[in-house]
Amino acid sequence: MEKSINQRYVLTEPILPMLSGMLYNGKDLPLRRDVVFFVVESTDEAAKEAYIRKLREVAPLSDNRFLHILDVGMEPNYIFAVLKTFDGKPFIQELKGHRFTPEEAVSKVLELGKGLMDALEEGISGCSVHAANLWLNDDGQLKIINYWEKGTHAQRGAQGLGCLLYQILTRSESIPVSFDTIEHRLREALVAIPSVEQELLIATLRRVWNDQETLASFMLVLQSLRQDTAVRQEVSKPVRERQVQEKTEPERAYEEEDPAEEEEAPPRRSLGRAGRKLLVGTAIACLGGAAAFVWLGKDREEPSGKGVSPAQTEHYAPVQPSHHTYDKPAGPEVVSDPNQKKAEDKIVIVPNLIGLQNDTAGKQAIAAGLRYGFDIVANEREEGTVFKQEPAAHTQVTKGTEIKYWVSKGKQP
């Protein structure tokens, strides 16, 4: 089909039906370029005017994680928005056949989250990040198509990103109504991942599902997962390859930097402009145990007797079950280390253990630099699930403080 608009644009073929309109391929004749059209049918003049205002409000957004609006207009029976096109296609068409690894899935969701936080600073919020509202570039980047309409609660913000991560990992177009179903399917999709890492990821997504994570705190978890992956990949390099890399790297790292150059260097962006504002109050408090989110290989047990690097041997000794109290092993005493006293006096943030399984909660406590103890009592929560803790999550305490939590043994007759 071909349909002319204002003697400038031509709609060539439909691409994808969307919630409130249709996506079309098309051409901008004067500029001789391909574009994408978002078309909404309507004959109500007041409704069309309101929709045009909505489009114009978000049109200045130029973040590269969104399809840019180039033009908007009205015809007697419809409204249209001209969007900048990119090589690729709607992500929903590739969802079942994509080849993203779990690490890549985390990175892509993290990048979209940064885009949401930057858009928030421009007054744009609530858009859907469901797979059906995303464009997949040929280079693998995901972009949000419609960002002027609000998505449902399960499609926007932290929960929307959590659901998108589920969609990518399970290659599923629909989102189950029950998190128990989500958990079951995630375990099937992540069967090759060690059980400890499965528990950490699923526990995070459960908190997101229950609205116990903000967008900012969820971004920190994803950032931690990506950083842990990079560290693991570096450690897993063959020794010879790391030695060659160290020899070929410039020696500037060992030179004293010029203070004047430091002052002129532009600031780095990590989680976006809005991220810097939103994370001030939540960055550390959101997840004291975020560092425990070890992705795909970290924190695995290594068989004894094989060459293990010093970094791999710094594991805690097995905990003892007596009295349900667990201390971090003190390790060998180093009297001459001047930093030891400083480490002992360090203030840490108590992680949120509620909703985690018993063994996972203990690992998070240790990762946060705390000792822990627990009691197992009757409770309505699922057996083996933490339902109470002291001190409360996000509290500041001295490193080495004991945190106590209560684990459900299920309902008792």
Automatic annotation (TrEMBL):
Q: Which residues form the PASTA domain?
A: 343-409
Positions of region (Disordered): 234-270, 319-339
Q: Which residues cross the membrane?
A: 278-296
List the SMART domains.
Answer: PASTA (SM00740)
Compositional bias annotation for Acidic residues? 254-264
Alphabetical keyword list: Kinase, Membrane, Serine/threonine-protein kinase, Transferase, Transmembrane, Transmembrane helix
CDD domains reported for this sequence? PASTA_pknB
Basic and acidic residues: bias regions:
234-253
Q: Gene3D superfamilies recorded for this chain? A: 3.30.10.20, Phosphorylase Kinase, domain 1 (3.30.200.20), Transferase(Phosphotransferase) domain 1 (1.10.510.10)
Q: Name one Pfam family in it.
A: PASTA
GO function terms (MF aspect):
protein serine/threonine kinase activity
Name under which the protein is recorded: Serine/threonine protein kinase
The organism is Paenibacillus tianmuensis
